[in-house]
Design a protein that fits this description.
With 95 residues, the chain is mainly α. The protein has one domain. Helix content is 82%, strand content 0%. The termini are far apart.
């Protein structure tokens, strides 16, 4: 499970970093969309993390506690990945 979370975080961080880099270095209007650069990759990552945590707690909890734990841990994992890529990207390219 840790390996799967790392893969999701690396894919999210790499894709988001490249999208932000395109936003900074390109004059194209498509990259000026906050939704495309920040929100959509984060939402996809959040859903992927919820599914990974949901699957890992199978059989240990009933549905509602399992869902709450999965969503909570997914928010933490997604926030950590987002923080890492934004620190690197903002340091290199500015805000």
């Amino acid at each position: 499970m840790v390996g799967e979370l790392l893969v999701v975080a690396l894919v999210y961080g790499s894709a988001s970093f490249l999208l932000y880099r395109a936003r900074v270095q390109s004059e194209a209007q498509v990259w000026n969309s906050d939704s495309l650069v920040f929100y959509r990759p984060g939402l996809v990552t959040l859903v992927a993390n919820v599914l990974l945590f949901w699957r890992s707690f199978r059989g240990r909890f009933s549905v509602w506690p399992r869902l709450g734990i999965a969503i909570g841990l997914a928010f933490v994992a997604t926030f950590a990945a987002a923080w890492c890529w934004t620190v690197i990207a903002f340091s290199l390219y500015g805000t």
